């Protein structure tokens, strides 16, 4: 990407940093409508848009239009909502930082960093650090294992930690 990309994109799109929405100013293709929100939400939950025969992640275009340069690396959505492109929800990060802030995914537990150890009949907590899975302990309570993961995530990841009880609006 080049410095002139800002002028090309800004000619066709308006960006509202308060709402995170990109609006077409000029017609780009048969699919776009001037005055309407640009793009679509892809199967992974990211807003995308087609522009001059290429597909772009909307949060990267938003970054370009706000800061007038392409982001140098990864962009993290602080709240974990991949389609929330408000500028105060976006931050530059490394791949590792971005992975730390991932949402809780399905498995044997509803909590991040927790799984059922059927061989022991206990809940196990672990955290991924420096390319390795670090064992945090086994627990009779799923919530206790999740609390242990949260404490380790706060310690090691700081502001990048995606916590179980914060994410689920629960208290430990």
Give your account of this protein's structure.
By secondary structure, the protein is an alpha+beta fold. It folds into 2 domains: about 5-95, Homing Intron 3 (I-Ppo) Encoded Endonuclease, Chain A (Alpha-Beta Complex); about 105-165, AP2/ERF domain (GCC-box Binding Domain, 2-Layer Sandwich). It is about 25% helix and about 25% strand. The protein is built from 5 helices and 10 strands, in the order H-E-E-E-E-E-H-E-E-H-E-E-E-H-H. The chain has helices spanning about 5-10, 60-65, 95-100, 140-155, 165, and strands at about 15, 20-25, 40, 45-50, 55, 75, 90-95, 115, 120-130, 130-140. A 3-stranded antiparallel β-sheet has the order 3-4-5. A hairpin with a 2-residue loop joins strand 9 and strand 10 (about 130-140). It is elongated. The mean pLDDT is about 90.
SSE layout:
Elements: H1 5-12, E1 13-16, E2 21-24, E3 40-41, E4 47-51, E5 54-57, H2 58-67, E6 74-77, E7 90-93, H3 95-100, E8 114-117, E9 122-129, E10 132-139, H4 142-157, H5 164-167
Antiparallel strand pairs: 1-2, 3-4, 4-5, 6-7, 8-9, 9-10
Descriptive tags:
single chain, about 170 residues, Homing Intron 3 (I-Ppo) Encoded Endonuclease, Chain A, GCC-box Binding Domain, 2 domains, three-stranded antiparallel β-sheet
Could you give a short description of this structure?
By secondary structure, the chain is an alpha+beta fold.
What would you report as the Rg, rounded to the nearest angstrom?
20 Å
The CATH class of the largest domain is: Alpha Beta
Number of domains: 2
- CATH fold name of the largest domain: Homing Intron 3 (I-Ppo) Encoded Endonuclease, Chain A
Helix and strand composition category: alpha+beta
Low-confidence stretches: none
The biggest beta sheet reads: 3 strands, antiparallel
The strand line-up of the biggest sheet is 3-4-5
Quaternary state of the chains:
single chain
User: What coarse outline follows from CA principal-axis ratios?
Assistant: elongated
Q: CATH architecture of the largest domain, please?
A: Alpha-Beta Complex
What's the SSE pattern? HEEEEEHEEHEEEHH
The overall pLDDT average reads 88
| Alpha-carbon distance between the two ends | 46 Å
Specify the helix fraction band. 25-40%
